[in-house]
Amino acid sequence: MDLKYNTGFGNEFATEVVAGALPVGRNSPQKAPLGLYAEQFSGTAFTVPRVHNKRTWTYRIRPSVMHKPFDRIDNGRWLSKPDLEDVTPNQLRWDPLPLPSEPTDFIDGITTIAGNGDVFSQAGIGIHIYACNADREGRYFYNADGEMLIVPEMGSLTIYTELGVIEVSPGEVCCIPRGLKFRVSLGEKSPPATAGGTDRAARGYICENYGAQFRLPDLGPIGANGLANPRDFETPVAWYEDLDGKFEQVAKFGGNLWSCEIDHSPLDVVAWHGNYAPYKYDLRRFNTIGSISFDHPDPSIFTVLTSPSGEAGVANCDFVIFPDRWLVGEDTFRPPWYHRNTMSEYMGLIYGQYDAKEEGFVPGGGSLHNQMSAHGPDLDAFEKASNADLKPQKLEGTLAFMFESRYIIRPTKFAMDCAELQHEYSDVWQGLRKNFPPKP
């Protein structure tokens, strides 16, 4: 499929598949063009300041209200509230979860690793791994609890939404707005599955954001340019399905999964205009900022997207990346330094090697360092960086990321009991030697 996109973060777009489907000068005329139904899709309260107001007008073959009643279905391993009584201050790290052995689609393949906050209070995040090896035609989904930032690590996904089609691959991210209906297929760039399902597989990370929508961070003293440029974000053009039959529509609502029967494809929007829409972004277009003298700034300079909380400068969630970049600081310990933080950090690796962890932190895996839990380079990374010849060095072929939150991130019982948890993770720091007092 030859996909087309509009560009710009949060722009007001107007797009139609059939000429004349968009009304002129009206959002909801007495009769919408071409026998379509006008339906507004609101992502914020009506009275939010205009700069943050999100809504899209859709012109669809049938209105969204046309479906049978919902019934509860099994949540699988997708959780929206902690199922562990206690949370540990210990540093945690996981190997990648295996691909499923039975045919598993994107929704059934979601496993919750950790989370915080509350879907009813619209604060906090859920952190999940998806691992799938099969498509499930005729199954549609929407999430009423939060937007979904999808970060592929293995294989590509083709995401068919009400507002257009997005293909997302490792090195890119895709954000699906709260409430948007979509279905997911394994993309053409997906590698062969190692077990079960089809001949393709995909795996990656999801940040389910219950709080304020992700937006670009303010740049402050950086000025007008740098970090993620708005023009590099891509939003799909209009596309639709006109299908009749017996289909399933799954909803995540109030922390649970619900299912109903629907007699047509809900992806039947022929035209739309607005600024509440899905988007994707190629992380390799991120303009990194760093020191060109000594030391290095705080990792907030690597923030791609931020979900603000009620306190200025303190995020419900930041999405931060560590991509290819030059290291040139003089008399500087160049990897991330040892630190303790009021923010809690879940970290994942998309490809390559993270410069502060020589071993054990691999693509598809993850680590969790909660607020005030000390962390930093392992022994090998510390020794190497402390004794390196500080010539300009380019880190290449690496892409790590972090979901960082002001709230304690609580791992799930599954995450603490699974075979992929590295119980000896803390050993990576135990060989650090006492070097004081220095030898004469």
Write a brief caption for the model:
The protein is mainly beta. It is 3% helix and 35% strand.
What does this structure look like?
With 440 residues, the protein is mostly beta strands. The protein folds into 2 domains: 68-269 and 276-283, Sandwich (Jelly Rolls); 288-423, Jelly Rolls (Sandwich). The chain is 3% helix and 35% strand. Strands 1-16-20-13-10-15-8-7-28 form a 9-stranded antiparallel β-sheet. A hairpin with a 2-residue loop joins β11 (157-161) and β12 (164-168). The protein is globular and about 90 Å long. The mean pLDDT is 94.
Could you name the key traits of this structure?
single chain, 440 residues, mainly beta, Jelly Rolls, 2 helices
Just name the CATH architecture of the largest domain.
Sandwich
Output the helix-strand order. EEEEEEEEEEEEEEEEEEEEEEEEEHEEEH
Mean pLDDT: 94
The overall strand count is 28
Shape: globular
Q: How are the strands ordered across the major sheet? A: 1-16-20-13-10-15-8-7-28
| Percent range for β-strand residues | 25-35%
Structural class: mainly beta
How helix-rich are the residues, as a percent range? under 10%
N→C terminal distance: 69 Å
Q: What fold name goes in the CATH topology slot of the largest domain?
A: Jelly Rolls
Number of helices: 2
Topology, pairings included?
Layout: E1 5-7, E2 13-16, E3 37-42, E4 55-60, E5 71-72, E6 92-94, E7 110-115, E8 125-132, E9 139-143, E10 147-154, E11 157-161, E12 164-168, E13 172-176, E14 182-186, E15 202-209, E16 233-236, E17 244-253, E18 256-264, E19 269-274, E20 279-282, E21 303-308, E22 315-322, E23 325-327, E24 344-351, E25 366-369, H1 379-386, E26 393-395, E27 399-405, E28 410-411, H2 413-417
Parallel strand pairs: 9-17
Antiparallel strand pairs: 1-16, 2-19, 3-4, 4-19, 5-18, 6-25, 7-8, 7-28, 8-15, 10-13, 10-15, 11-12, 11-14, 13-20, 16-20, 17-18, 21-22, 22-27, 23-26, 24-25, 24-27
